[in-house]
Each structure stands twice: as structure tokens, then as C-alpha cells.
Amino acid sequence: MSSTNWGRTALLGTAFALTVALSACSASTTASGPAAGTDADPVVGGDLTFAIANDPISLNPSGTGAGNDTWYVTRQLVDSLLYQNPDTNELEPWLAKSWEANADATVFTFVLRDDVTFSDGTPLTAGDVKATFDDIIAAGPKSQAVSSFVGYKGTTVIDEHTVEVSFNTPNAAFPNSTSSVPLGIVGAATLAVPYDDRATGDAVVGTGPFVLGSYTKDVETVLERRDGYAWSPASRELDGEAYLDSVTFQVVPEPAVRTGSLTSGQVDVIGGVQPVDVDTLTASSFPLVSRGNPGVSFGEYFNVSRPIVSDIVVREAIAHATNAAEIRDTALNDEFNVGTSILAATTPGWADESGYFEFDPKESAKLLDGAGWKLGDDGIREKDGTKLSLVVNWITNFGPNQTSLELLQQQLKDVGIELTLQGGDVPSFLERQTSGDFDISWQNLSRADGDVLRTTFSSAATNTLRIDDPTLEALLQEQLATGDQAARATVLADAQERIASQYYQIPVHELTSILATQPTVTGVTLGADSRLDQLTGASLAAAE
Amino acid sequence: MTRYITRRLAQAIGVLWAAYTVSFLVLYALPGDPAKLIAGPDATDITPAQLDALRAEFGLDKPLIVQYVDRLLGLMRGDLGQSLPTGRPVSDLIGEALPSTIQIAALGLLLAIIFGAGLAILATFSRNQALSRLLFSLPPLGVAIPGFWFALLLIQWFSFGIPLFPAVGNVGFASTVLPAITLALPTGATIAQLLSKSLTNTLREPYIDTVRAKGAGPARVHFRHALRNAALPALTVTGLIVGQLLSGTVVAETVFSRPGLGRVTATAVAQQDIPLVQGIVLFAAGVFVVTNLLVDLIYPLLDPRIVIGRPRVARVQAGVPA
């Protein structure tokens, strides 16, 4: 859920298609020939222009900015204690050369590399890690990172390069959290500036492969190569400085203009590629870089406090009436996966539960008949004078949501279930979540750790779904208290099984992040959180 | 004259106060908890105590009436408050965005006047009935074309197709051209519509017949005699035109990826940055007030029959020879 205005975007896509059709001149495709450069040697030097949708708003890594687009930029400025390998989802050493957790996941010890310096020349020490974390706690909810520190007791400096983070309650998700941008380590010079005054980025001193050149609100953020950078995570297979001289993140709000800027050669990489533009770009040989977002998948989340959907039979009937593949094929495209579990397949600990969600409208009808829901004259089922009519709460910020839900509306109508779609912007969505005036919520949440299950379903968290299930609750708390990652994956699998078998959620599709590049650009990759990884290995071609 | 301006300034303050009150009521009646919005939609592990601390810091825990008075007092000191997500002063954010907006708005207004007035004059001047009818039909079309679509068409043709102008950014004069044309289209069309209508009417006035009878050629009739009178109704809607330009910047600046007031507005609304939205509303109200005041002061320069600051009766008496 980024704060992008995706609703207007969908409209724009249509308008743009019309424009292209009406304009006599062809949308010239500058990219001819094969998708070159994939195995060529990286070219050293050059300036890369990257079009993003939103102004970063705050370049303070732990601050609250514009979500993904902000982290695309700040990821380049700061490194993290651990690196989550996007190929394996395993946590690997980064600023910390080793780490360990105690058995109940309350104490985490990190041993830092001793050769790392901040961009102002000061060496990285255990004290910087402690200061960064304590600063986040002091900032409270103004920091995006504060929710990673639930139950935080404190950070202790053991020696110059060893630091121990302790919690009062287990927090097995913490090692994974340390790999995220908001927990990136900043230098003492940053922390000396009041939290509210760091948005412009002038004060941000990190250990990352780029440093801030200039930031112009609503226009661009220019980053320059950090000299002497030599601590990329080992699995990136890069041992030195970034290849590029500079990276300019240019703010281009309209997706169609981003696409046009790429195809007309005005920018090198674009972010936030819309599903409607995917075919155009691939047809013109512009390579896509895409990765399914980890976290909880897009789908039907039930408010089990509501009378009709509190019945598991109704929920199961809806699962068998939902044709997720058709929704994916119609509203989205092949870049997106059909959901198989509450967790998306790129989430650590994901388990395939698709057996629960077979599309079988006959079974659905049978279940509803059995539960006493009889077809009325208008094609909608009824029971004791109550219509089988449900309200769906959803956010208009992602273009394909509307198409997806209108199709779902038809699919459920076929078995006699009526859906009323209540869409709105983020604030009104949150308002309805709080008041509980909905039966089904159409939502998702991107997060690179299975603990997202707890924040979504635990009765101790916000619990917008009003779930009261001790079995599930025990599993959600247990995964947070299991320090061993393999053992934790088993608990997470059990939790997914529980959610699927109780039909608390029906997965439909996995949100996917899509970038597109000029055919000559190499080394632009997405991290384990499916956001832009560091551009250390990115390079342009030698000549146009 | 001094009394007149004093009265108008008092009126202006009244208008601003009303804008403040209405925007306060509307913005604070919106659904959603500002504290939760500051924390963001994905913040699921935030404790109520943390939210309370946030409310206290932004003064959101006080009763509405106290917040209303606090902000109003701040406003009197020229303090528009702080933007919620960045913590920066609202006046700074508006001030920084303004120059870039003024560039395209000024060029847009210039283009609108040149082409709007040009079209109106050409339409009334032309003796070719078919051409005249064609020209008269253009302004409604200009008003009806959606700015958003038109902007995309321009970018598609003159940036992606023929690379004459940059598609994004605010570097150099070239970057102002397409956004200015986008702004000029509805504004120019409005001017053309009004001016051609009022020129047509003016040319039917008896005094024009007199001028013609005295042997003035069509050009002299048009420019020396008709245009000055016909321009008054167009001047009256200047306030509307400025409003059109300001609201047009939201689309123009978004499509052409320019910084400016329109972009600040779009972002502020999307993020429900209440102090910033309110600051923009007040700024826009101020612009309207000033524009209308200027227009009223310009009237007498164009039409000597209008005298400012003296009631009608007094004027009549003044006209009576002693």
C-alpha cells in the first residue's frame, strides 16, 4: 500500500491508449534488436536516470516518506546489519559479519565488520548501531521502523564491534527487520540533527555505495558514487565501488509518461510499471525487472464478526466460487502470480495451501444449499429473510483493484452471492476497517517476513478482521518466539494451514513490483523485499 | 480612495477568515485519524500510547475549538503551521513551489490572451461567413477538451514523437512551453468565448454606427472604438481565469512532472496533510482577493464612466455644473 494515486492511473492508462491511437505519428520504438547487454562487461562510469512515481518526501531512512519510492532512494545511502538474499530469502552477513539469536528470540548479537566507514569518514562501531536503534525508539510512530521494535528492552555495546539487542518479549522477526531500509545504520552526524529536520537528506550520513548530491522536491534526487565503498554483501559478487558515477531519481508521477520517457530514450529505468503497460514494453523489447512482493497476498479477507461470514461454510463456498486465475488473466497479466496461500510465494516460510481454494462453483452451490441459503427470484440466495449480500471494503489506489473486484462480483453472482463494492481512498478505507462496517476486505500488505501474519491476524494487534481463534493466536505468538529459522518456518506453515482451513482469507493474486529498463542497462535488481536493491552493480552501455 | 481601499481590505480579511473557517470545518470533518495517517496505513504494530504521543505533539488531542483558535492565532502571526509528514513550515513549501508555477501560469496567461483575443477579433472581423462561423465554434471546443488528455496528446506529439520539448522537469524555457499551452487552452477559450460575444454585441451598438458614418474603416472601428468597451466583461472574469490557471496547474504539473503549487496540492490531498491543504486554500483565497481588488482598480482606466470610492449619488452631483 504505497500512497500512490493508482486510481487516477488506471484512467490515465485508458486515456493514454486513446492518445496513442489518435496520434498519427507512431510511438516510435527506439529499441530495436535483441535485448542486448545481459552478459556484457559492466561499463564503469556514466549517469543513470531512474524515473519514480513519487517525491521521496523524507530522505531520513527511518522516517515516513512515500513508501517504496522513498526506499528506492534511501537504500542507496544506507547499508543494513544483515542482507536478505533475494534468490534464497536467506539472511546473510552485511555490516554484521556474523549474528546469532538465543532460543526464545529475545536476544540478538551482531558482530560488525571492522573495515566499514560512514561517508563522513568516521568508522562504523557498535555505538552507531545502538544510537541508530535508540533514535528510532525516541522518534516513536514518526518512524516507519518503530513497529520492528515491539517489546524493545535496549541495545548494549559489548565491545567496539559487538552489539546485543534485547527484547522483553520474543521478536523472531527482528533479524529480518534489520535487513530493511528503515533499520539501516546512520552515523552520529545524522543523529545530531533533530529527527524532524532530516527530511531533506542533507544530514543523512550512511555507509552505502552512494551519497546524496542534491535533492529538489518534486523534481529529482541526485546521488553520487561513494569513493572507497568495499562492503557489498558477498552474494552480490561485487567487491568495490558502484560502476555508475551518479544516479538521478527523477519524479515522474504519471505512469504513461514514465513509459513514454523510457521508450523515447529520455530515461534509463522506470519504476512502478503499470500492468496495462507490460505488453507494450515487452513488445518493444524493453526488459522488465519484476518480483512478486513478499507479504500477505491480495485476496478476500473476512470480517468474522459479521453474521453471514462468521459461518465458515459461507467462507468456504466463496472460496470455491472465486476463480483467481481468471481474475489474474483479466485484470493483470502473467507477471503476477495467482495466490496460493495467505503468504505470497516470495515470503520466507511460505507454504502452498492452494488445495483449499479449488475453483468449483458446483461445490460452492452445494455448500450454500446445505447451509440453508436458497436461491431467490432475483438470483441472490436468502436464508430466514436475510439476503446473501456482502459489503467489500477496498482501496482505489491500485488500478487493477476495480477490474478484479467487478469480475469477482460476477463470479460470486453466478452462485447467488451479491457483493456491494465500497471503494475509497486510504483514509476512508482505514475508517471502515476501524468501524467494522464491511464483510470482506480486499487488501494486501508487503513485508519480507512471515511475522506479517501476526500483524494481520493476531487478536493482540490491530485485528481489523475481528478474529478470535486461540489455535491461530498460539501459532502466531510461537513463530515470534522461535529463534531457530528452520523451526520457525514450520510454525509459519502451520499458521498458514490454519488460516487456509478456516478460510479467514482467500488468496487471489500476489502484488508484483515491475521495473523496466533500456535494453543496454544491466545490474538493476529487486531485493528480497521486492523493492529496488542497491545499484552498486548497475551500469549503462558504453555508447548509445 | 483611501476609504475605499480600507473597506476592501476589511472585506479581504473577512473572506480569508471565512476560507479558514470553512476549510477547517471541512478538513477536520474528513474521515480518518490524522495521527494514524502520520503513522501510515501499514503501521499495524503501533501502540495506542505511541499514537497519543503523536496527537499531543501536533496538538491533535485538544478540543476542536481550541485547535481552531490556536491555528487562527498562528495565522494572524503569519504562521500557517507545519506539514504533517515532513514537519516543514507550510509557508516554506508554498513559497518554494510558487516560482515554478508562476512561470507556466504567466506564459499560459500570455498565450491565452494572445490566442483568445486574437481568435475573437478574427471571428468578428472576418467577412467570410464560413470562416467566421468556424472560428466562433472553436472556443466551446477548447473549453470542452479535458486538460489531462490534451496534455498527454502534447507530450506524445512534441516530446515522445518529435523531440522538441522535454517530457519532464523544469529546466530551461523549453520545459515551460507544453505545460503553458495546456494551461492556455481552457483559459484562452474562455477569453475568446467572452470577447467574441461581447464584441459582437458592441458592434451592434448605435455609437458604432455613428463611428462608421463618420467614415472610420473596419480596423479603426474594431480596435479604436469597439474593443475597449468589449474588453470590460472579459476583465470581470479575471478572477475566474486566475482560478482556472491555478487549478489547471494540478494537471499540467503532474503530467509534465514539474514541481509547483499544483503538485504540492495533489500530494497534500493524497496524504491528507491537513495543515498544508489548508495553507493552500488560504493562499488561493488570498490570490482571488488580490486579483479582484486589482480588477476593480483597473476598471476606471478602461471606462471613465466608472469612478471608484464615491457613491453613485455623489458622482451624479459632481457631474452637475455649479
What does this structure look like?
The complex is a heterodimer of chains A (about 550) and B (about 325). By secondary structure, chain A is of the alpha+beta class. Chain A has helices spanning about 5-20, 70-75, 125-140, 175-180, 190, 255-265, 280-285, 310-320, 325-330, 360-370, 400-415, 425-435, 450-455, 470-480, 485-500, and strands spanning about 45-50, 80-85, 90-95, 95-100, 105-110, 150-160, 160-165, 210-215, 220-225, 245-250, 270, 290, 295-300, 335-340, 375, 380-385, 385, 390-395, 420-425, 440-445, 505-510, 510-515. A seven-stranded mixed β-sheet of chain A has the order 8-9-10-1-11-22-12. In chain A, a hairpin with a 3-residue loop joins strand 8 and strand 9 (about 220-225). By secondary structure, chain B is mostly helical. In chain B, helix 8 (about 175-205) runs antiparallel to helix 11 (about 240-255). Chain B starts with a helix and ends with a helix. Chain B has a domain at about 90-270: MetI-like (MetI-like fold, Orthogonal Bundle), CATH 1.10.3720. Chains A and B meet through helix 1, helix 6 and helix 12 of A and helix 2, helix 3, helix 5, helix 7 and helix 12 of B.
Comma- or semicolon-separated keywords:
heterodimer; A: 544 residues; alpha+beta; D-Maltodextrin-Binding Protein, domain 2; Dipeptide-binding Protein, domain 3; 2 domains; seven-stranded mixed beta sheet; six-stranded mixed beta sheet; globular; B: 322 residues; mainly alpha; MetI-like fold; 14 helices; disordered C terminus
Q: Averaging pLDDT over every residue of chain A, what do you get?
A: 89
Strands ordered across the widest β-sheet of chain A? 8-9-10-1-11-22-12
Order of helices and strands of chain B: HHHHHHHHHHHHHH
Could you please say which CATH topology of the domain at 91-270 in chain B applies here?
MetI-like fold
> At CATH's second level, what is the architecture of the domain at 91-270 in chain B?
Orthogonal Bundle
Broad structural category of chain A: alpha+beta
- Say which CATH homologous superfamily of the domain at 91-270 in chain B is assigned: MetI-like
For the largest interface, the chains and their residue counts are: A-B, 64 and 58 residues
What oligomeric assembly is this protein in? heterodimer
Just give the CATH class of the domain at 91-270 in chain B: Mainly Alpha
Major pleated sheet of chain B: none
C-alpha geometry of chain A:
globular
Topology, number of strands of chain B: 0
Apparent shape of chain B: flat
Number of helices of chain A: 15
State the low-pLDDT regions of chain A, or none: 1-39
* Cα gyration radius of chain B (Å): 25 Å
**Structural category of chain B:** mainly alpha
